[in-house]
Amino acid sequence: MAVYIDPPTWPGHGRLWSHLVSDSSYDELHAFAARLGAPRRAFERDHYDIPAARYEDAVRLGAVEVRSREIVRLLTRAGLRRRKRGPDPAATSVPGRPPAG
Predict the structure, then answer these.
(1) Could you tell me the maximum CA-CA distance found in the chain, to the nearest angstrom?
(2) Which terminal Cβ of the chain has fewer Cβ within 10 Å, N or C?
(3) Distance CA 21, CA 6 (A)
(4) Which of 66, 83, 86 is nearest to 22 (CA)?
(5) Where do the domains of the chain lie?
(6) Rounded distance, CA 63 to CA 87, Å?
(7) pLDDT single digits (tens) 14-68
(8) How far apart are CA 88 and CA 92, in angstroms?
């Protein structure tokens, strides 16, 4: 049971970001994120987005450094993976024509 973080290589909002995940529970992940001082709004489906400036802080608190491709594998193996939903067919339909599907 551990919390993992990948390198800050994901660009967004003028910064680079890491993903912080747990291999056992969302409770463990939320507790760790709270100790790190990450706001709850940084939680996205199954991970926290952590800015590069906080990466070393997370490691000092005990987050295990892993490669980015390990993040999905860890979440999947733990049964905690929550995929993004695909596009809403109704949102892309043409008026007067039934949605594709």
Answers:
(1) 57
(2) C
(3) 9
(4) 66
(5) 3-82
(6) 33
(7) 999 999 999 999 999 999 999 999 999 999 989 999 999 999 999 999 999 999 9
(8) 7
